[in-house]
Design goal:
binds 2-acetamido-2-deoxy-beta-D-glucopyranose, Immunoglobulin-like, signal, 43% strand, 4 domains, 8-stranded mixed beta sheet, 37 strands
Length: 538
């Protein structure tokens, strides 16, 4: 250390072009080490000023090492005061870098570093001024005094970097995700990680092992040290996975000369290649067949449909991770019926409602039902009402039905032929205690039996004695209203029909539901409206 000081001193002297004068000053004022014995007579002419004759009257540093705490943009004074005479040569260092040697400024230090007598004045302090500042006083070629102050500038956090290991923002499923966030500021900021508002971890590094596609998304690094404002940054991470293919409608009903769309949803990272096939052969664009694609939606549009267009199409997607595909049927036959509702009408008859899509006229419905699973199917032929567009509503009213458990399914016939059967719907009839003539009036605000809908749209609170609510893992809610006539039922049978049992039945009946995700949603909201009406009209 002394050696360095000395070298700097010599440099300083050379810079001033007056090495001789400097040497002379030293000879006069300071007992040089070569003298061996330090002689106070040599140092002070008037030794009377000094009460302590026996001590060596060398300059003493009176400034003690101090921790300075400053706010951003403040001005700080770092003292380097001595007693016992003015020593001409001093050096200020920031950490190990020389800032001043006497009044000469070094390095890249700007105007905010000033010297006044020996005090180092720093204005507009910021994060870069947080350092140890040492004032060194050169007593001789070998002897120095020094004082070190620590300056801590309170600064709001700043995120210097937010990085993913190897800069790889697309990670294969099963691998690890390692994120690093470097935040500066004083006091040292704490770093908190979160995703979608959910706190994940604290600390500069976030690692997640064995990632799956659920781990993709925007990760936030938030740095806070209670000095406003906190800093945050996002990084988007994708988890590579093979395509997930979904079909909007598994059966698309069409007719000659119509335009039809087959709609496929594909999610994949990296971006997938998607092709449409029919009978294993890739479909190429033609004047009647077009491909549309936006975001995750891939559409095959067939204009002016011909009979030979009917058949099974495949939406096939692949990327470097893998491939998947799903089929969709373009057909002239009616679509399999979609269950919409089951309720009691004003006469306590069970009414089951389905929707059927058909672009050519429906000529007949065939509803088959049976009591218990092992008896024979019986048949009903509900009348065909006018469609709305290509959507037909099948209302099936079961009159005078003995109490018990029922299964029911429907198919419909148009000019092309019979559709597939709908999935089986199960319901329970409480039994009839009176025989009213069937009226074709459906006042379903009055006496519902079974209502199924999606729980997302349903808040089960507020339902007490009147109805029991149970939620299944399959996300369906069954509301069993109590009816006066149920009291007449055989008790043992009642007991079997716990909500759990009902749920199981519902699960089973829903299990083979056709139709894409999207087509379920309007149904759910429709049913919700119905449910609310029922609850409050009692
Ligand atoms: C410090 O000064 C800079 C520039 O003049 C300004 O942008 C910043 O907001 C100031 N900081 C504080 C804490 O006042
Ligand atoms: C520098 O120090 C001298 C005596 O030690 C004092 O008279 C003078 O006022 C000081 N100057 C400043 C700018 O502090
Ligand atoms: C601090 O120093 C770094 C590099 O030396 C520079 O990029 C940055 O702008 C400085 N910050 C301030 C507030 O002066
Ligand atoms: C000052 O020096 C001390 C001791 O070496 C060290 O612990 C501290 O971190 C330093 N302060 C700054 C602001 O660099
Ligand atoms: C400062 O002084 C101490 C003794 O007081 C000494 O150990 C240290 O080496 C000195 N540092 C410098 C940079 O001169
Ligand atoms: C990784 O996660 C998957 C599910 O995402 C799991 O099946 C597998 O066992 C996990 N592997 C390890 C090594 O934990
Ligand atoms: C595609 O996604 C973007 C952003 O998520 C959205 O703004 C846009 O509406 C989407 N386009 C279509 C056609 O859905
Ligand atoms: C079928 O039932 C629905 C209620 O689900 C009703 O709105 C509609 O009017 C009924 N249609 C016929 C033809 O009865
Ligand atoms: C549901 O589909 C499975 C096979 O996918 C089949 O075994 C079962 O019989 C079907 N159930 C109904 C009610 O169609």
């Amino acid at each position: 250390m002394r050696l360095i000081s000395l070298v700097t001193l010599l440099f300083f002297c050379a810079a001033h072009g007056r090495p001789n004068k400097q040497d002379v000053d030293y000879d006069m004022e300071i007992a040089l080490p070569e003298d061996g014995v330090q002689n106070d007579d040599n140092y002070y002419d008037d030794s009377d000023d000094d009460d302590n004759d026996e001590d060596l009257p060398l300059p003493v540093l009176v400034s003690k090492p101090t921790n300075f705490m400053a706010q951003e943009n403040e001005t700080v004074h770092l003292p380097c005061e001595t007693e016992n005479g003015d020593t001409p040569v001093f050096i200020w260092r920031k950490n190990n870098e020389v800032v001043f040697q006497d009044t000469i400024k070094f390095g890249s230090f700007g105007n905010n570093f000033q010297i006044s007598n020996r005090t180092l004045i720093i204005s507009n302090v910021g994060v870069n001024e947080t350092a140890n500042y040492t004032c060194t006083i050169l007593l001789s070629k070998t002897e120095t005094l020094n004082v070190t102050h620590e300056l801590l500038v309170q600064t709001a956090p700043k995120i210097e970097s937010l990085q993913v290991l190897h800069d790889n923002v697309e990670i294969d499923a099963g691998k690890s995700l390692v994120l690093t966030c470097k935040a500066i500021g004083y006091p040292r900021p704490t770093v908190v990680w979160s995703k979608k508002g959910e706190r994940l971890a604290e600390g500069n590094t976030l690692s997640i092992e064995n990632v799956s596609h659920h781990d993709s998304g925007d990760y936030q690094c938030l740095a806070d040290n209670h000095i406003e404002p906190p800093a945050h940054k996002f990084i988007h991470i994708s988890i590579a996975h093979k395509p997930v293919v979904n079909i909007e409608k598994l059966t698309v009903n069409s007719d000659e000369h119509l335009d039809s769309q087959l709609i496929c949803y594909v999610k994949a990272v990296p971006k997938p290649e998607v092709v449409w096939k029919k009978d294993g052969v890739n479909i190429v664009r033609s004047d009647r067949k077009h491909f549309k694609h936006h975001n995750h939606t891939y559409i095959l549009e067939i204009q002016n449909v011909k009979i030979e267009d009917f058949g099974i199409y495949t939406c096939s997607a692949y990327n470097r991770v893998g491939s998947s595909e799903k089929n969709v049927v373009l057909t002239g036959f009616p679509s399999p019926a979609e269950h919409i509702n089951t309720f009691h009408d004003a006469d306590k008859n069970i009414v089951v409602v389905w929707n059927v899509e058909s672009n050519s006229p429906i000529v007949q419905y065939e509803v088959e039902y049976k009591k218990n699973s092992n008896s024979d199917w019986k048949m009903l032929h509900p009348e065909v009402s006018n469609p709305e567009g290509n959507l037909y509503t099948v209302n099936t009213t079961f009159t005078n039905l003995p109490g018990g458990h029922y299964e029911v399914k429907v198919r419909s016939k148009n000019t092309y032929g019979w559709s597939d059967y709908s999935p089986i719907i199960k319901f329970k009839n409480g039994g009839h205690h009176q025989h009213k003539p069937h009226k074709n009036v459906h006042n379903h605000e009055e006496t519902p039996v079974v209502i199924i809908h999606e729980p997302q749209a349903f808040d089960g609170s507020g339902i007490t004695e009147e109805g029991s609510v149970a939620q299944t893992s399959e996300q369906s809610v069954i509301l069993q209203a109590q009816f006066p006539f149920e009291a007449q039922n055989d008790n043992t049978e009642q007991k079997q029909h716990t909500p759990e049992h009902q749920q199981q039945l519902m699960k089973e009946s829903k299990g083979n539901g056709t139709g894409g995700v999207t087509s379920v949603l309007p149904t759910a909201s429709l049913l919700l409206v119905t449910t609310i009406t029922i609850l409050f009209s009692h």
